[in-house]
Amino acid sequence: MDGVKFGLKRFVFSRFVGSLCDQFLLFAVPLAILNATGSLTFSSLAFVIEWLPRIIFFPISGFLADRLKPRFIFFNVDTGRCLLLLSAFLLLTWHPGATFATLAVMMALLSVAYVLNFVATDAMLPRHLPAAELPKAHSMLQGVDQTTQVLGPALAVAISVYGGVTSILLVATVLFAVSAVNYLFLQTKDPVVEEKLRLRSVIDDNRVALKVLRQNKILLHLCALTWVVNLVYGAALVVSAAVILQEFSLPESYFGVLQTTAALTTIVAFLFVPRFTARFGLSALGTVSFCTMILAGAVMSFSPDYLVYLAGYAALMAFDGAFSVYLRTVRSQIIPQAHLGKTMGLIGLLNMCSVPASGLMVTLLSGSFSPLQIIGIILAGALVLGLTLVIAGRRMFGYKSWLPPVMVSECQATGLQ
């Protein structure tokens, strides 16, 4: 099946709408909770409540992605989002004092929908697109995510003027409804599954996913590389606000400029990713992205002023996105198609744990070091780990490139029973 028959552009449209709504909520919900409670503790607690279901639901989402028709998953996910947001809108309209409880529960349930959408996407694309089209498709999706990071907060500010967070909830409700209807026109194939849906099957599926990882050590190697990248990426996200406000003594608006510039740089970078991949190969994309991220981290840690830090941060975010295209494309070619969903669910679980790890490192170091020093320390550790992994990978797996190229594994060729 090619991209036209499957409806790639239609799928990307719904991804754009859904990602735009996510950015609305990421911008509006923390501010709404902070304004309603006046407490940073409640705001951070809402983040924890949102984050934990993502980790827990990854293995289950992989199980569902291998058994349910993609169109059914995406339609029902966005329908559920629509109904959930509508319920939150009505509840806050009738009971404005229930802001924290309503929004915290809403975001926790939305995080489950996000995980299922994410895993189902990674499981669906290799089953519906030729391998040559995957880098372009992943670049389009990454570009959509970055575009909405620019548009989302700006539109959310404009919408909130007319009614605060409730107006944003209502607009997002309508957009998710449009996205759900659009998904009905996708042409997707039913996965071939003989056994029934039951709890025992979830356990068995995750055992199979573990077997895929054990038999295909390159996947574990890619997970380790992702951990290294996420340490630098996560530290930059956590520390950057403090760098702007404390190190450079600049107002909050400069932080907004930082994020917007990074998103725009990433969008421009994605325009060249398919062309670069076609000419130099996926392994070269991964290698250049990995090295540039390390270099960008060094620029950030030694920044004498805001503009230098801005350049380093924008490069880091742009090439993190490019590295994600490399990772997702290589993984989709290595994992047997029959086990894409369950294996991606397990990999997502492993990779997601690196997010709090970077935050924990920042917390432990913040009492003794400045924000820029923290970036430098984490960067040094990531550099040592990254070089070790690259050298070990070349010796263990015998590929001639610096990072794993697209290769059909023994599992992919023969299937895993």
Structural overview:
With 417 residues, the protein is an all-alpha fold. It has two domains: 1-189, MFS general substrate transporter like domains (Growth Hormone, Chain: A, Up-down Bundle), CATH 1.20.1250; 200-417, Up-down Bundle (Growth Hormone, Chain: A). The chain is 82% helix and 0% strand. The protein contains 16 helices and no strands. Helix 6 packs across helix 12 (306-334). The two termini are 25 Å apart. The relative contact order is 0.13. The model is unreliable at 408-417 (pLDDT under 50). It is found in: Cell membrane. Its main location: membrane. This is MFS-type transporter involved in bile tolerance (Atg22 family).
Classified by CATH, the class of the largest domain is: Mainly Alpha
The count of strands amounts to 0
At CATH's second level, what is the architecture of the largest domain? Up-down Bundle
**Main sheet makeup:** none
Helical run tally: 16
Pfam families: MFS_1 (PF07690)
Main location: membrane
InterPro entries: MFS, MFS_trans_sf
GO cellular component, one term: plasma membrane
Task: Give the key terms.
417 residues, mainly alpha, Growth Hormone, Chain: A, 16 helices, 0% strand, disordered C terminus
Quick take:
This is MFS-type transporter involved in bile tolerance (Atg22 family). This protein is an all-alpha fold.
Question: How do the strands and helices of this protein lay out in sequence?
Answer:
Blueprint: H1 3-6, H2 8-37, H3 40-65, H4 70-94, H5 99-128, H6 134-160, H7 164-183, H8 199-215, H9 217-247, H10 253-280, H11 282-301, H12 306-334, H13 340-352, H14 354-365, H15 371-397, H16 410-414
Helix pairs in contact: 2-3, 2-5, 2-6, 2-7, 3-5, 3-13, 4-5, 4-7, 5-13, 6-10, 6-12, 8-13, 9-12, 9-14, 9-15, 10-11, 10-12, 11-12, 11-15
